[in-house]
Amino acid sequence: MDYLFEEDAALKAFVLVSLAICAGLAQDQPGNAQNLNAPAGNGQKAAKNQAPKKWPQKYTHAPDLADVPYGPHQRNKFDLWRAKSGKPTPLAIYYHPGGFSLGDKSSIPTAFLEACLEKGISVATVNYRYSFQAHYPAPFQDSARALQFLRLHAKEYNVDPKRVTAQGASAGGGISMWLGFKPDMADPKSDDPVQRQSTRLPVIAAVDGQCTYDPRLIAKLIDEDTGRLISRMALWQLFGFDKNEDPFKAEKFFPAFEDSSAINFIKAGAPPAFLYYHAPLEPLPVKIQADAVHNIRHGLAVKERMDKLGIECVVRDSSQYQGATRAEQLNRDMVTFFLKYL
Hints:
alpha/beta, 8 strands, three-stranded parallel beta sheet, Rossmann fold
C-alpha cells in the first residue's frame, strides 16, 4: 500500500498518526493514543517518534470466531465475541479507522469490547476493502454486506437480528453513520440471501466520524483548507480522482461525494446517534491537522438536523471525560445509550 503515498512522505506520516489516534482515543491502550499524547483530545501534537502498531494487533480477549469470511475478497472478514446468554443477544458491529487505506479490525478498543460484553452485547469487528483496492462505494458496500451477513446468520451466532448497532472510528465512524442514515439497502429479489437482509439500524455511534466526504460541504462546515487536506489525504483515492485535481471542481465525482455523505440522508425515522470527538470545539482555523479532519463540527451538524426531527443525538468530547478511567467512562456511556434503543 506504500505506493499510495510515494510522492508525499509527510502525508503518509500524518495518516499513520491519525490512524493511531483514532484507534486508541477511546481506549487509552499503551502504545496507542496514550503514547501519542492524544487520548484526552488536548490539542497536543503526536510524538514524532511514535507510530501505530503493526496490523493485525493481538487481542487482549481472543474472539470466539476469527477471520470469518462474509464476502469474496480477502479483506471481507470479521471477528466475533459472543456475550454469554441463554437467549439471543444484541450485537454491536465495529468498523475500523484508517482513512479507507489503512487499519484493521483488530484495532477495536478494548474498553468498548469489554463494556459491550459486560452488558450482554455480542461484538463483531469488520475489515472492508481499502480504497486502493476498490474505489467508493466498495468499502461502504462491504460494511453493509458484513451487517447483512451477520443478520443472516444471527441464529447461528446467538444474536437478535433486530437488535444490531454499528460503531466506528474516523472512516469507520463515517461508515457507521452512512449505514444508519441511508435508506435500507436490502434487495428482496436478490438470488443472494445475504443481499436480502435489511441494513436498517435502531441506534448508531461514531468516534471522530465524518458526516460527509464531500469537500464542498467540508469547506462549509469547517473551511476550504480542511476540504483540500482531507481530499489530498484520503478522498482522491477513495473516489478515484487525480490527487492534484481541484476537488471543488471535480464535477464528475460530485454525485459520489453526495452519496457517500451520511448527513444527506438524515430524515424522519433515522436512528438515534451517540457521537464522540477527541477535540472540543475550537476557533477556526484549526491548527492541528488531526483535529481539523476529525472536527466536532461534523457531529454538531448531524445533531442540528436530528434535533429538528426530534431524534436523540448526543455529541460529546474529551472535556466531559476526565481522569485515568475516561476511556471506561466514555464506553460505558456509549453502551448505555445503545441499550436505550436495542
